[in-house]
Amino acid sequence: MFSLRSNKLFIKVFRLLFIGIVLISVTFGFIGVTLQKQSILELLHSGAKSLAQSITFVSSDALIIDDNSYLIEFNSEYIRKNEKIKNVIIAKNDNTYFNIKKNSWSYEQTIPSELKQMQTKEESYKILYSDVLKEEVFHYTYPIYFSGISWGWLHLSFDLKEYNERISSMYLQFFYLVLSLTVLFFIIAYYIAKVFSTPIIELNKTVSSVTSDNLDVRVDTLRDDEIGELSHAFNNMISQLSISQRRLKDSHEDLEKRVHERTAEIKLVNKSLEEKSQELSELNKTLDSKVKLEIEKRRKQEEMLLQQSRLAAMGEMVGNIAHQWRQPLNALSIIIQNIALSYQMGKLNENFMQKSVDESIDLTTMMSKTIDDFRHFFMPNKKKEDFLLSKSLNSSLELIGSTFKNYNIEVHKSIDENLFVTGFPNEFAQALLNVLSNAKDALLENKIKMPEVHVALKKEGNKGKIYIRDNAGGIDENILKKVFEPYFTTKEQGKGTGIGLYMSKIIIEQNMKGKIYAKNVENGVEFIIEMPLKTEEIK
Length: 539
Prior knowledge:
With about 550 residues, this protein is an alpha+beta fold.
């Protein structure tokens, strides 16, 4: 009887199993810890991104109109109420920085280089030592974009207390788990090593006897598993050993021949694989070039569409101003001609001259007011306010009214004057102007002989509904489903960007919690805008 603990095979098998199992467990544990740390970091990233989007959304108007006092006041109050945020830095494109802490803020002309390197087109985040706070923080950098235009970056620094507590707890759990598994693995390795080494050791003794030309020896291990089958096969092997030796010599020559044939086949296969690999490599290079080329084409197309949208909006505004100015310019021309005629006839006196000057000043004042109306109309609201739906609707109709008259488009109105909502009146009026302009374009494009636009504002339940209907002939049902998608337009190439209705949908549904949709009606299309009314009456 032998001692397992002093047997080399048992020790090797036990050591190999134990170390192998432990290494595999540690590897999976390390992977698990890494993934868990990454998951915790991703949770920080997700929360930081949500906060950054909220801050950016609320600060958007202040950034656009360069209202620095509002930016500082809002962000100072925000981080004082949020215990996790320790520092906010607003980095503008003109290399000016507002460094806002819990109890102070400062205007800086530079920031640490490590933070500046994180100012890229994509968001970035990592754990770093903050030179501003003099401690380690989770830092998140968010690029600020409005309408495809970069306005700078938002830097957020977060406290690592919660992160460190989670990491410490995770390491402690991992330590206890590893300790428990080590004991379990020790027992399992000992049992497996014993089960597998004992019959092999017995078989080794028999082999040693066979190598000493003792072919009478047999393996006495009786088992009903693979080890028992091996012992039985070994006994048969001893019987067949002499026969096998004789056959071995004969088969050696045949084996050598097969090896040469197989080697030749493998060479052919390897050559074919090399050719296929080369073809695949060339294909990958070509595919990569094509993908980059298509991406660049798509980027240029989007830039061109955005530029066309801006030019179209500017052209629409200039066209409306031109129609508003046509009548006063004609009147001003007549006044100037009357002055010249009176002078030629010798009837130019002080009273006539003063009257002509007063009338000219009235006309130029009216033209100046037109410019102010358009300027205020396109000026974004800083915050939500209560306003009359009828006022925004009438404002949009006034701005485009001269254009409608110029093209002989008859407008029919039915407006409820006492419906209040909460939101951004200027942006809402712009959305209405987009829908009205779209109706005008459809009427002109289809060359309608008696063009009409019907506008109605009604109260239905707790909602105010605006109906804008034309008689331009309607839109195909398959296309009607896509009119609010970005870059989709039914107009001729170069005459539409597909941005107007998309921006109207964003303003009404996302910014003001309303709803806009379109449907075909008799002889045309009807756009319906639903807005939740203010519950309390405003006096």
